[in-house]
Amino acid sequence: MKKNYLKKVMALGLTAVMTLGLGACGSSSSTASTASSSGTASTTEATSGASSTAASGESYGSKHKVLRVGIECAYAPYNWTQESEEVGNGDKAVKIANNEGYAYGYDVKVAQMIADKLGWDLEIYKSDWSAIFMGLNSGTYDCIMSGICYSDERDKTLDFTTPYYCRKITATVRADSEFADFTSLDQFKGKNAKVTSQMGTNFVDYKSEIPDGESVTDYETSGEAFQAVLNSTADVCILDQTTSSSALMTMDGLKVLDLPDDAFTVPEGASNDCCIAFKEGDPERDEVNEAMKEIGWTTDNKSQFDDLMDEMLKYQPSQG
């Protein structure tokens, strides 16, 4: 039987309080198949507040635990891999537990804030997107933070936190293409545009909303999907606004269409909000959810989501 997403989200606060301290985090010795090498307060205030609380011992989780997170580490500005721990904003990237390099980006930053609040260590495990759920199921890590959205299908085997980022679906084309000045999806009628996206994501479901569009190959990474547009292998790439804006900053020749906020229709039983995914029944979800609530990282303070993402856009590596 399908579970009601809204009821689950409303019940999280009560459930979190009842289950605090019951979560079990396994050993971090195993490793997964890695990817190919390749509000009420400001963001700063929220981050420093979480860190100082953890340092003073006022944490909300069990002692001496580890937050083990599976992340693609190739999806800027949400997450990426870099060679050193140094970041231009003075922050420190996190050493990847199962691969060379360091991880940083929006997902990593939020994961660190949560771990600090809980008083836990943070471990990041790098995984190809196509294998990221397998790593969760095998116990290599305990949760996934890689821009994952809720869906009824995923809810059959996963439990989700409340959203930690909200996003909009949009379309990206070549800046010199006949589609570059389109301001509505209706303008694609009769154009037989070739449409791509990132494989295994909820964005693929939106490809069919391009009128008379031709679905072509989807790609392992968002960067490859944008490159397909630049190479004219595809005409349109359907992804979220943040990732598309990121591509424009690092890849010349692309344009994000200026479409209405409701241009794309969210399928029934789905969401575009990013949540942290755990295996179904894992009580650690509730501890993490309570930590997010305590540091104010909720949709009630959505402006700080956007502030942090804007900061990550400034320090992301090139996708090209």
Task: Map the helices and strands.
Blueprint: H1 5-19, H2 43-55, E1 66-71, E2 80-82, E3 94-95, E4 102-104, H3 106-118, E5 121-126, H4 132-138, E6 143-144, E7 149-151, E8 158-160, E9 169-174, E10 194-196, E11 214-215, H5 222-230, E12 236-240, H6 241-250, E13 254-256, E14 270-274, E15 277-279, H7 284-294, H8 302-315
Parallel strand pairs: 1-5, 1-6, 10-11, 10-12
Antiparallel strand pairs: 2-4, 3-4, 6-15, 7-14, 8-15, 9-12, 9-13
Helix pairs in contact: 1-7, 2-3, 3-7
Main pleated sheet: 5 strands, mixed
SSE run: HHEEEEHEHEEEEEEHEHEEEHH
> In what order do the strands lie side by side in the largest sheet?
5-1-6-15-8
The helix tally amounts to: 8
What does this structure look like?
The chain has helices at residues 5-19, 43-55, 106-118, 132-138, 222-230, 241-250, 284-294, 302-315, and strands at 66-71, 80-82, 94-95, 102-104, 121-126, 143-144, 149-151, 158-160, 169-174, 194-196, 214-215, 236-240, 254-256, 270-274, 277-279. The protein has 320 residues and is α/β, with parallel strands linked by helices. α1 (5-19) packs across α7 (284-294), α2 (43-55) runs parallel beside α3 and α3 crosses α7 (284-294). The longest helix is centred in the first third of the chain and has 15 residues, at 5-19. The radius of gyration is 19 Å and the shape is globular. The termini are far apart.
